[in-house]
């Protein structure tokens, strides 16, 4: 299943820059052209939540520390 091209046109990064997203039909992901965050597409519904995004600037979840 592919996302509707018309839907893709109006999709934008949920971050403040609202940059366009790059759709990868193979990986079922949307990559922000500005910050590089990767958003998943689940059941043809793009999950455009910063909390759910992978990568992007200041991505430090690999360190896994819970205290700041
Ligand atoms: Zn972005």
Explained architecture:
The protein is mostly beta strands. The N and C termini lie far apart (41 Å). The longest helix has 6 residues, at 5-10. The mean pLDDT is 86. It is globular and about 30 Å long. Helices cover 9% and strands 22% of the residues. It has a four-stranded antiparallel sheet, with no helix packed on it. Bound molecules: zinc ion.
Can you give keywords for this protein?
68 residues; mainly beta; 4-stranded antiparallel beta sheet; 1 helix; 4 strands; binds zinc ion
The class by helix and strand makeup works out as mainly beta
Strand residues, percent: 15-25%
Largest sheet: 4 strands, antiparallel
Ligand species: zinc ion
